[in-house]
């Protein structure tokens, strides 16, 4: 199994850890300390050694931060984690605030006294984040103090060792482009920005550029490493040499100079003297800015030059993801067929998640399942309303008659990364469940059918997914879609569909389509397919070319949860066409028993409209 379901040591009860941390703060004359969910390379999912926020607060979500003062402890989370954070933190010692509406820098202005000293780890915050905190400190005549050592580490007695997992070569068959070719685009970006050096701090960018993969972070095939690109010489890759075998080292030394990870600061300082150094202000650690400036260099704030090229998949990567989604669709459909045969109340969340992973393993064939792409969200009834729920031995519950079961899962294969959510009726659904599911489906179809001109951003089409819910006084507190890597992170930028999605959608990008609805204490609904941005065929009578989406994910949508009277003819046509495509693609890949179930699950839905709606 690539996941375990042991109940964590959280929630952290009592204030023993807070007391120890506050004692450390007092030694450094601090009135407040900022503890983000972050590591030195700004990964979304962290190695165990970097789970400082979880250790001190109990909150285990993938985004958030905390502020600890002498009297208060506050954790800041976004809408995905409102319910989870309340359950995981001890309300006797912690309060929860909105990361969006009342972020930490705003809270500091309102709650700290004049002249306060605020501590932070400069390796765990970006330049833009530090700017916000500096402004907050200035407004209260205080001081933001970069710390030489992390204070949580100082009191975390049993902190795990940093990861040191082996690195593998990502075969050219799946990578589709050699490092030298990728470097040309990186150096062109450096020329555009008149930069002598560029620091890549995002491990996904490093792995993509050098065509390597690793296992330093659970479910995300990255290795923790930095790279410094030079305008007139080979780049330098800073990586723990223990991760490299003879073959991988020989592969890398053809395209870069290898140095140990702990040589980064000293080497960058030497190279930065009188040099212009590109750093991404939203990704690079503030410590890197300090190293460059202290060495007499000039920081050039510019986007990570690998981020957009790796988001635009090449032909090999697109071919690979289609192949990965075929296998994954067969696995998920086999799981759904199995689940449909289980009596209500006989299966629990953990059993279901294990069964799904087993199907993915069995369906892998000659393309082994390298990992799941994140911990499976297997939530029944009220647990489904927790957006990023993770079942464990304490929270595990059975799938009961009349409830909804939400399963969000994915796989990592050499040829692609998958991510799919299906919401399933357990027994006979209520009219209200069918109504809300159908509204979510209408939003999902709205994205799937979207046609849009070049220059369109995610923010421009996000409303297509939300409008059916808005018209019924409902919404969801997460983005509609996130980018997905090619055997890399299941959450990849810069592309997304959300209220903050400012990146233009470009052909070759892979993005999720996942509107949802969550009713606290009752149920959660989400329908997620991955889609590929592509150039569309010419629209008859149109004035200009349009872009659109190719749906990659292949698995039935539960028709028992659909109220056809709420669907338009176009929406019904899309559903029937999608199910026909799923059936044709998957039937040859699954057992006869599953194929028979699939045929029934994808039968065209007939729309019986009342006269007033015709």
What does this protein look like?
This protein is α+β, with helices and mostly antiparallel strands. It has three domains: 16-155, Creatine Amidinohydrolase, Chain A, domain 1 (3-Layer(aba) Sandwich); 168-308, Creatine Amidinohydrolase, Chain A, domain 1, CATH 3.40.350.10; 312-605, Creatinase/methionine aminopeptidase superfamily (Creatine Amidinohydrolase, Alpha-Beta Complex). 34% of the residues lie in helices and 18% in strands. The chain is built from 19 helices and 27 strands. Strands 4-3-2-1-5-6 form a six-stranded mixed beta sheet. Strands 12-11-10-8-13-14 form a six-stranded mixed beta sheet, with helices on both faces. α12 (286-294) links the parallel β13 and β14. The longest helix has 26 residues, at 315-340. 49% of the residues are buried.
User: Which segments are poorly predicted (pLDDT under 50) over 5 or more consecutive residues?
Assistant: none
Structural class: alpha+beta
The radius of gyration is: 25 Å
**Mean model confidence by pLDDT:** 95
The biggest sheet amounts to: 6 strands, mixed
Specify the CATH architecture of the largest domain: Alpha-Beta Complex
According to CATH, the fold-level topology of the largest domain is: Creatine Amidinohydrolase
CATH superfamily of the largest domain: Creatinase/methionine aminopeptidase superfamily
| Secondary structure tally: strands | 27
Compute the number of structural domains.
3
**Helix share of residues?**
25-40%
């Amino acid at each position: 199994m690539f996941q375990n379901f042991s109940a964590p040591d959280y929630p952290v009860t009592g204030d023993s850890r807070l007391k120890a941390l506050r004692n450390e703060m007092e030694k450094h004359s601090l009135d407040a300390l900022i503890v983000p969910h972050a590591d030195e390379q700004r990964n979304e999912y962290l190695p165990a050694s970097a789970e400082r926020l979880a250790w001190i607060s109990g909150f285990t979500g993938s985004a958030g931060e905390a502020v600890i003062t002498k009297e208060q402890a506050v954790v800041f989370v976004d809408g995905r984690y409102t319910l989870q954070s309340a359950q995981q933190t001890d309300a006797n010692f912690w309060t929860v605030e909105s990361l969006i509406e009342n972020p930490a820098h705003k809270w500091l202005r309102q709650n700290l006294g004049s002249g306060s000293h605020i501590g932070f780890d400069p390796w765990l915050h970006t330049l833009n984040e530090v700017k916000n905190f500096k402004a907050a400190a200035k407004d209260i005549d205080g001081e933001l103090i970069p710390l030489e050592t992390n204070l949580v580490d100082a009191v975390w007695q049993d902190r795990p060792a940093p990861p040191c997992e082996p690195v593998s070569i990502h075969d050219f068959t799946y990578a589709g482009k050699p490092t030298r070719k990728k470097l040309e685009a990186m150096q062109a970006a450096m020329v555009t920005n008149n930069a002598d050096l560029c620091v890549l701090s995002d491990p996904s960018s490093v792995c993509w550029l050098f065509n390597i993969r690793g296992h330093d972070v659970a479910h995300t095939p990255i290795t923790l490493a930095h790279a410094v690109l030079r305008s007139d010489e080979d780049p330098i890759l800073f990586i723990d040499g223990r991760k490299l075998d003879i073959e991988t080292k020989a592969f890398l030394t053809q395209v870069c100079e290898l140095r140990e990870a702990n040589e980064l600061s000293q080497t960058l300082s030497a190279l930065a003297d009188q040099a212009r150094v590109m750093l991404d202000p939203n990704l690079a650690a503030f410590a890197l800015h300090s190293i460059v400036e202290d060495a007499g260099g000039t920081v050039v704030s510019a986007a990570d030059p690998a981020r957009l090229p790796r988001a635009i998949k090449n032909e090999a990567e697109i071919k690979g993801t289609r192949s990965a989604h075929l296998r994954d669709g067969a696995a998920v459909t086999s799981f759904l067929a199995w689940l449909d045969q289980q009596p209500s109340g006989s299966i629990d969340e953990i059993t279901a998640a294990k069964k799904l992973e087993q199907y993915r393993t069995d369906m892998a064939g000659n393309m082994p399942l390298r990992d799941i792409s994140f911990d499976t969200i297997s939530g029944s009834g009220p647990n489904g309303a927790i957006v990023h729920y993770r079942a464990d031995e304490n929270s595990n519950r059975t799938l009961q008659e009349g409830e909804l079961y939400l399963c969000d899962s994915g796989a990592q294969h050499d040829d692609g990364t998958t991510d799919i959510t299906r919401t399933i009726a357990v027994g006979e659904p209520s009219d209200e469940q069918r109504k809300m599911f159908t509204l979510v489906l209408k939003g999902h179809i709205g994205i799937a059918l979207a046609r849009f001109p070049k220059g369109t951003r995610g923010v421009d089409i996000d409303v297509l997914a939300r409008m059916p819910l808005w018209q019924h006084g409902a919404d969801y507190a997460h983005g509609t879609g996130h980018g997905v890597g090619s055997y890399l992170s299941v959450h990849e930028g810069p592309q997304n569909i959300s209220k903050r999605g400012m990146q233009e959608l470009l052909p070759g990008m892979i993005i999720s389509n996942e509107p949802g609805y969550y009713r606290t204490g009752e149920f959660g609904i989400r329908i997620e397919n991955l889609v590929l941005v592509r150039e569309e065929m010419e629209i008859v009578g149109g004035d200009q070319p349009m872009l659109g989406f190719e749906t990659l994910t292949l698995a039935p949508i539960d028709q028992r949860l659909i109220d056809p009277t709420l669907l338009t003819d176009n929406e019904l046509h899309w559903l029937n066409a999608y199910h026909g495509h799923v059936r044709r693609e998957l039937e040859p890949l699954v057992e006869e028993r599953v194929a028979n179930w699939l045929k029934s699950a994808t039968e065209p839905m007939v729309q019986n409209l009342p006269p007033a709606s015709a």
